[in-house]
Design a protein that fits this description.
This protein is an all-alpha fold and about 500 residues long. The chain has 19 helices and no strands. Helix 1 crosses helix 7 and helix 5 runs antiparallel to helix 16.
């Protein structure tokens, strides 16, 4: 039992706030508590190291130059604010529904509906990005060079889907070892990179060091604007940091595990993201990188060490599969929370014998199949197209988390809820500044033109789809709300149609 829960209360509920009864999320019932501290810690690491770094950094370096490291640092600070805000909510009330459950409590069913489907937009498109990345990595090896990209994408999706449907313990073990591989590879790369810079050992005919930056246009070789324009892609790189908040609902002692895992994200961001990008900029001119190849593979290939590039390519392939695995896991839990509240298809609330919500996982995988089709029609542009749509989902998800955090802080002022000792610092200014940052990222997507502008221009259609979807499900949502034993009037339900 959670030691913050009163002995007479339900084990999944938060302690009653002053003057109110605890909020209970039906979507939290039925899960096994098989994720341990080591799983959560490595899931947090894995969430902060993924496809956005291993593949996306190449094209961003080519487009913005060494200033990309600044973009990673700035976005990393805001990513930490988001996950720290979610951590405070998790300590208040652990839930597998995560921010969707908190949106339901603080914003009503309408807020939960919007938060959940924006998160689904994030991960359904990220799944496409991940299988696209996996297919791109596989083409590095000659044995796969003649295999169509869509075929490799389909194989990647099938393998990860099968693994994800077994049990949460199996998922945790897979993510643990995936994260071990990613961290070990990055540490090895950084040690090699530091050695090359110190010894001035040539890489593909170039002498590593600060001269590589200063001799090729400096920190901003193409100006500051390109650095600002790649920020939306950098945000995508941090897309999985909220995953540990979802996983908290399936661990036995979240109040002990979560603070350690979340607090460590900040130094991991500084070390692995900023540090590795700085090294990449020192090792080769920014013009040596491209958007169709991992920058780490480019460096290892430039060294001419037999097999080194192949090993690194295998590592980045692992990162793509890890991200896909995480996306299927998290959307399965989020969609179940929504389904049991009536705002997602009923089949997404079903669980198998391994206590895995397979319905939601299959729905996300179904959109991955559409990504296979995109790889068939537009193999060259598939990654950038879905990256932009995923970025919209990420911005919406992070925005919802910060709104929930802001409303939670506001309710704590009059004693309706009690903030845990583990808190987001500088509230409410942190939430407000982060929300402003997210709006700026959306503006930069539009300002940059191309696919980004098209994506932002579709925001009214996305909003219209959410509104239409709400009118489809609101009767069912209201019916289920009245049936819950803890049902209380709240915004967005039929009891209180505000």
């Amino acid at each position: 039992m959670n030691d913050r829960t009163p002995a007479a209360g339900p084990p999944a509920a938060a302690p009653p706030a002053a003057g109110g009864s605890p909020h209970v999320d039906a979507g939290d019932a039925g899960y096994s508590k098989d994720l341990t501290s080591r799983h959560i810690n490595m899931i947090a690491i894995g969430g902060a190291i993924g496809t956005g770094l291993f593949l996306g950094a190449g094209g961003r370096l080519a487009g913005a130059g060494p200033s990309l490291a600044l973009a990673y640092a700035v976005c990393g600070v805001f990513a930490f604010f988001v996950v720290r805000a979610l951590g405070e909510l998790v300590l208040y009330r652990p839930s597998s529904g995560a921010f969707v459950s908190y949106a339901r409590e603080f914003m009503g069913e309408k807020g939960a509906f919007a938060a959940g489907w924006l998160y689904f937009l994030n991960w359904s498109t990220t799944a496409v990005a991940d299988i696209t990345a996996a297919a791109t990595y596989a083409h590095f090896w000659g044995m796969f060079s003649d295999v169509p990209q869509w075929t490799l994408a389909l194989i990647a999706l099938t393998v990860v889907l099968a693994a994800n449907l077994i049990s949460v313990k199996y998922f945790g073990e897979m993510e643990f070892w995936f994260a071990i591989v990613k961290v070990a590879a990055l540490v090895a790369f950084m040690l090699i990179g530091i050695f090359l810079v110190v010894t001035q050992h040539p890489v593909d005919g170039h002498t590593p060091g600060f001269a590589t930056v200063s001799g090729n246009g400096g920190l901003f070789p193409v100006g500051m604007l390109p650095m600002l324009l790649v920020i939306q892609g950098v945000v995508f790189a941090y897309a999985s940091v909220e995953l540990c908040g979802v996983a908290a609902g399936e661990t036995r002692e979240p109040e002990k595990v979560m603070p350690r895992a979340i607090n460590s994200i900040m130094w991991r961001v500084g070390l692995f993201y900023v540090g590795s990008v700085v090294l990449l900029a020192l090792l080769l001119p920014y013009t040596s990188y491209s958007d169709d190849r991992s920058p780490f593979v480019t460096v290892m290939d430039g060294l001419g060490v037999p097999g080194a590039a192949g090993v690194m390519n295998l590592v980045v392939l692992t990162a793509a599969l890890s991200s896909l695995n995480s996306g299927l896991y998290s959307t399965g839990r989020i969609l179940r929370s929504m389904a049991l509240a009536g705002s997602a298809p009923a089949f997404t609330g079903r669980m198998n014998k391994g206590r895995v919500p397979y319905g939601g996982i299959l729905l996300t995988a179904g959109f991955g199949v559409l990504g296979v089709g995109l790889n068939y029609v537009m193999p060259g542009e598939a990654f950038e197209i879905v990256l932009n749509f995923a970025s919209i989902g990420i911005l919406g998800t992070w925005g919802m988390i910060m709104l929930c955090s802001l409303l939670f802080w506001h309710r704590s002022l009059d004693g309706r809820v009690a903030r845990p000792s583990y808190r987001l610092p500088w509230a409410p200014y942190t939430q407000i500044v982060t929300l402003f940052f997210l709006l700026c990222v959306a503006f930069l997507m539009w300002w940059g033109g191309g696919v980004g502008r098209t994506t932002v221009s579709l925001l009214p259609l996305i909003a219209a789809a959410l509104v239409a979807g709400w009118f489809v499900v609101r009767a069912r949502v209201g019916e289920l709300a009245r049936e819950r034993p803890d049902a209380r009037p709240g915004p967005g339900t039929r009891k209180d149609p505000r």
